[in-house]
């Protein structure tokens, strides 16, 4: 019994280097991605994260076109495309009648089509799948270093920006009245989003990178209404999904690709929280406790 | 119309000087050729019918709207605090009353500054001053309208500003809360801060505000409250506010 539990939950990681690397990569992604996801959610920018994830595709694809599966080329391409779309969408929203969400949607649809086209120009369908869904079981040293550097940088930046960032979310008018930092804070935050999506892209691909950011954050919201706990819980949920997804994918053999398994695990956490979460979960709604005296 | 000077000078220094100020949206003036001074330490109400440009004027003074013409000068070194009519505050954000109030410490704490023991005491004090003791750990989403306004006043207290701008601070708020918050306004006046408040309730203005600006895009009257709020002036103000005319010609009045 014990040995079978060991085989299921610990064995794969003890035995295989690629499993350990995958776990480390996902933990690094969760540490920085989850807090960013929490802020995206609280600022009602969940879909912005999704759009940005797609927007980095053509940049990464051009990097791929130029240099094949080269980490620096695809990273630089992805960052450039992500920043360009973020700034362009912001500019369109400010200068024309279109709202930011509509302009983001327009840009990311174009980006996605462009990216798929560019990858297909040179690579095979397998390459395309790799770009879209990543390959979390093939993280080499360079990718791990990139992921952990991004995590470190993001955490330090978030710590530095924490106060104005929270104020910008709660009461942007007030922040504007006491400080000019609002714009800088917003742009820096967007830069962090792009940076983490590009990092996530190497492990999970463009389509799933945003999943590890948003799903843990959304799940955590069903358990607490305190921002500090929200961030801690989301990070924990992210790591847990990474671990659960890897175990799931390993025990299912080659049939279940690891990247989607991780997102499915995060999705299961989300659905579970949605059902039984103590803060506005469905069960609480269906079985209300008696109200208090005062 | 001849520009009116705001006050018979409690202190001769002006906190805010408006010079031929025109503020508006899409070239349509909401405040039109307004000139005058608000003396340092004065407690002044801005009243007028809907659409008279009261909120616009406050926005302009707060620096949230740049003038179409003319200028607004806030005297050097004066710190402004501005409470807008409907703060674009996200009430669903998971944050406690304490933290919301503590935002008022921004000027002393900034991005990194530590909020230490004495600052914490100040926050507690401000929360107590608005009668919200016991609400510190309540999420802001659970506050009633009046309680929220109390919390925002506590934040204003902490801002420790020299000039305080309030846009309809007592709208949709019960009599007791209004009385409590008015007492804070009086306290600020006693500390010789400059308070400018947009108000609707003429009775409150008569009772609590020594100075009044009656605005209807232009100043109808500006000075001692008793002399400003006459029936004739109020009627005049009501007549002067009309809808935007989308075919209006450019204003040809001289800048003087």
TrEMBL record, chain A:
InterPro entries: ABC_BtuC-like (IPR037294), ABC_TroCD (IPR001626). It is a multi-pass membrane protein. It is found in: Cell membrane; Membrane. Keywords: Membrane, Transmembrane, Transmembrane helix, Transport. GO terms for biological process: response to zinc ion; transmembrane transport. Its main location: membrane. SUPFAM superfamilies: ABC transporter involved in vitamin B12 uptake, BtuC. The chain crosses the membrane at residues 22-42, 51-70, 76-97, 104-123, 143-162, 183-201, 207-223, 230-252, 258-277. GO terms for cellular component: ATP-binding cassette (ABC) transporter complex. Belongs to the ABC-3 integral membrane protein family. This is Zinc/manganese transport system permease protein.
TrEMBL record, chain B:
Transmembrane segments: none annotated. SUPFAM superfamilies: P-loop containing nucleoside triphosphate hydrolases. GO terms for biological process: zinc ion transport. Keywords: ATP-binding, Ion transport, Nucleotide-binding, Transport, Zinc, Zinc transport. It comes from the Bacteria. CDD domains: ABC_Metallic_Cations (cd03235). GO terms for molecular function: ATP binding; ATP hydrolysis activity. PROSITE patterns: ABC_TRANSPORTER_1, ABC_TRANSPORTER_2. NCBIfam families: AztA. Belongs to the ABC transporter superfamily. This is Zinc/manganese transport system ATP-binding protein.
